[in-house]
Amino acid sequence: MLNIKIKERSGLLVDFTPEKIVIKLQNMSLGLDNIDTEAILKEVEKNLYEGIKIDDLKRTIINATTFLIERHYNYAYLAARLLWDQLSEEILGLEYDKQISGVDPSVKNYQQGFIDYVAKGIEYQLLDPELAKFDLPKLAAAIKKERDNEFQYLGAQTVYDRYLLKTPVKPQQIFELPQWMWMRIAMGLALKENKREEKAIEFYDVISQFLLVPSTPTLFNSGTIHSQLSSCFLNTVDDSLIGIFKSFSDVARLSKWSGGVGTDWTSVRSLGSKIKGTNGDSQGIIPFVKIFNDIAVAVNQGGKRRGALAAYLEVWHNDIEEFLELKKNTGDERRRAHDIHPAVWIPDLFMKRVLSDGVWTLFSPSDVPELHDLYGKKFEEKYSEYEKENLPGARQMPAKELWRKILTMLYETGHPWITFKDPCNLRSPQDHVGVIHNSNLCTEITLNNSSDEVAVCNLASLNLARMIKDGGLNEELIKQTVATGMRMLDNVIDINFYTIPETETANNRHRPVGMGLMGYQDALYQLDIDFASDANLKFADRSMELISYYVYSASSDLAKERGTYETYEGSKWSRGILPIDTLKILEDERGIDLTIDKNTTLDWDTLRQKIKTQGMRNSNCIAIAPTATISNITGVAPCVEPIFKNIYSKENMSGSFLVINKYLVDDLMALNLWNKPILDMIKYHNGSVANISSIPAKLKNKYRETFEIDPYWVVRAAASRGKWIDQSASTNIFISTSSGKVLSDLYLDAWRAGLKTTYYLRTLAASQIAKTIEVPETPAPELIPEPIAPKACLINNPDCEACQ
């Protein structure tokens, strides 16, 4: 590598030698094994030229490091360190030649800079002026700069591009460092605490160590002047022009501040129904859903991302068949909605009719107004009464034919999501004050809504990857972390910026929150458990029982300290009925036994008594969201899903990133099997290790990818968790078959197991890892598999960020 001159920001050319890069890399990679600085230098050299700008040089070093991530995941940690080092230099104003020599910004400068940053943020009218009233030196002293090292490159770049605050005047510049961001979020969540500094530090310690991370809206807005921290909103549309257009206005305002919205359209009369005021015929819901779709495009959540909206419809609505075709790429574009997410709301009676080869009757809701608010046996009785009335607008079709149409559209477009009305309502703690009419954008929220209340949920996710100790669950850490997390979530309700009065009414009356989960697959890897195994089902059951026990206990403790939520009396909680107890209620109403184990291992009787004595602070406590973004930030597998691929290229708004399974690398290194030929074969097989003969069978089973795992295990694991959850869980289904029977059986199995909701149906991805490898002239048999053309992935690994 030649000595060259580089151009400083001032325009001055200064001498630069490769030794400075060597020292820099050696200092930045302390504590990281398997880093080859010579290899990084070779990559840097390819892009060096006389007079290169200093910022371009820094980016070149980072890019050279990321190029080598496939060799070992520690390069991802090093690249993140380099990125944060560069940002620290820019914000703290340290000289680059000192930095490149390995002089790290001092902790003192980092902490003093935090105090200045708060003042700047308030001056820019971005941060809440209340933050200046904290004991800032005390908080600054609690900041741990070394926690920057928790980031891998994908997470660091995502935070850098989209979460760190920027100056309001163009050209915008980042003025927030990552640990300052975590403390800013913690301070925002502690604004109304009596011991604000103490609680802010407690919150900071949890989130900055990735033990638990709040949802994206909270990361965006906590501590700012617009503290809209909630993730999800659920509303229902009245059957009137005024009601419909009010919902459009509400949705636009909710979407503006980074919230995902699920809207129930079931009450709106169907195509051809009479309009009393004009004596004309209704155009049905489709033209209005089209406008709803255009709102998603027009209101782009503060310029940070596109609006995220879902439309729900019950399967007895006369417009259901056209609703199923909203995402089709053919037909009348005026009756298509490509930017929203349709979902069907299915009562148990429909599933029974499918199983019995029965007939299904479709109605206009204007003719059967009671059905919208009924569920269980009462719905079945009223529905059957309406069928006997021979209403003029009603029509019939085989239930199996409609089921087939639902599944066909689901396979072709990934929609509609299949969600179940009766389990959601029959198992709801809040059955005494309303009805659940729909779920949200990601199908994990199941809360009551009405014309007077728009349901709101605030989310955070426990990182199960950090909850493993000595070959098992770290029960004490789970207990401590969820207690802090529940306090943070409960605080959101009082701090929140409410865009419409209906959200404030609902949130203050019921105080629902959603504690979720991520890094589940990481935990399985650490415990050496195969996803496709009974051991996984037992772990799903045991881990969720433990988490839910401490979550409900924490909410009860908050009730003792702060008081119960307004509508607690009469709830299932007050009646001594916990989520595990509601399985029997569902079975009794359905008349069919659920196909899941109902055993418990903890002392639930003591918790029941505690709740009856102390009450509950929150009407709902648990909801497992997809965590598409915050799992990237923390470097773990999203929510409760199996790993997508062992090595793949992920694209998002921040660019293209190589993701590699660090647990597989560690296991192969332990067997002296991690080398370039093995890496090349894994890439050749698009991340799969299933057909590489030199890898032991035990590892092949352990490291199966999503499409190599029978979806039965995904559904069964979801059911094992679902029995403990008072809301629901976002459950993606992965299939590698086009068999309609297999698909039907899978969703019937989900219903029989008592699942409340399902999310995307994902088919084999078309995008694969680039095969920049050389295959030997005479390869071993496993090196020349028959090429298989992958099916197109119609939803292409979607990221739901409205939730997390």
* Beta strands, count: 21
Return the structural class: alpha/beta
Main beta-sheet strand count, sense and barrel state: 8 strands, mixed
Can you tell me the residue ranges where pLDDT is under 50 for at least 5 consecutive residues? 95-104, 765-770, 772-800
Helix content: 40-55%
What is the averaged pLDDT score? 90
Strand content: 5-15%
Structure annotation, total helices: 30
Bulk shape: globular
Radius of gyration: 27 Å
End-to-end span in angstroms?
44 Å
Structure overview:
This protein is of the alpha/beta class. It has a domain at 4-103. 42% of the residues lie in helices and 11% in strands. The chain is built from 30 helices and 21 strands. The strands form seven sheets. Strands 4, 5, 6, 9, 10, 13, 14 and 17 form an eight-stranded mixed sheet that branches. The chain has a three-stranded mixed sheet with strand order 2-1-3. It has a two-stranded antiparallel ribbon with strand order 7-8. Strand 15 (468-469) and strand 16 form a beta hairpin. The longest helix has 29 residues, at 534-562. The protein is globular, with a radius of gyration of 27 Å. The two termini are 44 Å apart. Residues 95-104, 765-770 and 772-800 have low confidence and may be disordered.
